[in-house]
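Issue: ligand-bound run for magnesium ion - logging full I/O for the record.

Environment: standard queue, default settings, no custom constraints.

Inputs:
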Amino acid sequence: MDRNKLLKEIRELYGDNTEQLLKDLSVLQGVKKPAKNKRTLAGPAIITLEDTTKTYKLGKTTVDALKGVSLQVHQGEIVALTGPSGSGKSTLLQLVAGLDHPTSGSVTVDGVRVDQLKGNSMATYRAEKLGFVFQFFYLQPFLTLKTNIKVPTMFVKMTELERETRAKMFVEAVGLSDRADHLPRELSGGQMQRAAIARALMNHPNLILADEPTGNLDSANADAIMDLFEQIRTERGTTIVVVTHDQRVAARADRIIELKDGRLV
Ligand SMILES: Nc1ncnc2c1ncn2[C@@H]1O[C@H](COP(=O)(O)OP(=O)(O)OP(=O)(O)O)[C@@H](O)[C@H]1O
Ligand SMILES: [Mg+2]
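Outputs:
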């Protein structure tokens, strides 16, 4: 289609939101290679943990998953969270996401005490500020890939057209355009993982928490996902925390935070 005609159509549909839409589209077009030099970390703290602990009780046994962790992550940082299996990485991410509450200590995100949020304010926090990539995907088995990706948008104000446009854009950004109408069981593990990543990006979160987002991907696809994360960070100042066992992925972060046995190394 002729570019000017397309632009005119977009302006008619999007009105005041046109500039943002065009910016979004340019972010994702082909996912440009990001600049080599790392960003300076001048932004304010967006995540603050203060002496945060988490103890799980299972019958008579207790597991100290986090044993007093204090840390800060700054706006616009890409942080890799590493450490052996069972060291508390997923637990830490879940506390930041408000999917679980700490046993003691505090979790503050963007000035809000997440450990004290409840009910509607918690739901709003998750829907509007956060994109979460689950370690085990959690795609709805009876929804197609594209509908799965649209699910988070049901909890924020968005027109159907915008839902559709963003879904298309992110499905393409993770290389799944030809699988958009498939059910999760018809997808490979890596394809499900990429769908889960696309879903986390749909509401343009200010903070992306990704639990081993490249764990099922080959190195070319893992690189493409890290390119996409870097691009989104550069364009939108998004903060991204990535749990990973992959040294190559960790090496691309601005900073590595390592956990061992529930403590920072
Ligand atoms: N819901 C739960 N109930 C009881 N124990 C739990 C629960 N979730 C995690 N744990 C325990 O807490 C510890 C930390 O688990 P966590 O899932 O945070 O580790 P992880 O670093 O993400 O490991 P992995 O790399 O294998 O994903 C482990 O010993 C785990 O068994
Ligand atoms: Mg984990």
